[in-house]
Amino acid sequence: MSAHSLKMNFLEINNLSKIYTVKTFFSEKRFLALDGVSFSLKERESLSIIGSSGSGKTTLGRIIAKILEYDGGEIKFYGKNINDYSRYDFSKIVQMIFQNPYASLNPKLKIKSSLSEALDKNFQADAAEIIGQTLVKVGLESRILNNYPHQFSGGQRQKIAIARALLKNPKLIIADEPFASLDVYSQNQITSIFKDMMKSGVSIILITHDISAARQFAQRMIVMDEGKIVKDDSAENVFKEKENKYIADLISAAEI
Fold first, then answer.
1. For residue 236, how many C-alpha atoms fall within 13 Å in the half-sphere facing its CB?
2. CB-hemisphere CA count at 13 Å for 61?
3. Cα 167 to Cα 134: distance, rounded to the nearest angstrom
4. Residues forming a β-bridge with 77
5. Comparing C-alpha atoms, which of 110, 85, 86, 83 is closest to residue 164?
6. Neighbours of 234 (CB within 10 A)
7. Integer distance in angstroms from the first to the last C-alpha of the chain?
8. Cα→Cα distances 23→17, 19, 247, Å
9. In 182-215, which positions are buried (b, 16+ CB within 10 angstroms) versus exposed (e)?
10. pLDDT per residue over 5-44, tens digit each?
11. Domains of the chain, earliest start first
């Protein structure tokens, strides 16, 4: 038995469901955003969750990050129900990086203050050193600390958001469309940072509509459509898929 197979499932999702209610002037409409989603993730394992708009991938990511509540099923980290974790303890396990990095940074705070807020109070005495080391990991210099978010490019803001997440020393980072607003050069930089993080033992779930980006990122892919998992396999096998038109269309769109 390989060492990989001996690793425990630190994330387990069983039969997860989420219902959204849309209110109009005359009625309420309910639709199933997640329908019986189940999968697990081992320590130090990473994966890509791909799908078109409305497939449920972002909803799933936000539920795993405990930003949204779910309506049915169960999520466990290290065998413990997600709802049994305090907000503080959970923040040390899971962090989320959003599509728009500007939204995750307080525009009124200098970068130094934003990063210091993310650091555990037990490490505040060594804050300057820890923050400096973390900035190096994402390719930034300490001289940025006295600047404000609006003074940076989208790629630089995304690096700052990643640094902020890393300061929590999480086991899992969920990155929701982190490349969407970035140029190709910045996308490649962020991908490289993620790969370095994975080598250091951080698990990453990449959520994206871009199957090509997903393929470069992780060996395992989950494909979602209409709130369901339609394939959970290696990237190699996903790209060999010929019978599922939805997957074939995702691949074709990436090749255009």
1. 1
2. 28
3. 7
4. 11, 80
5. 110
6. 12
7. 42
8. 20, 13, 32
9. beeebbebbbebbeebbeeebbbbbbbbbbebbb
10. 446 789 999 999 999 988 887 888 888 999 999 999 998 8
11. 45-66+87-255 (3.40.50.300)
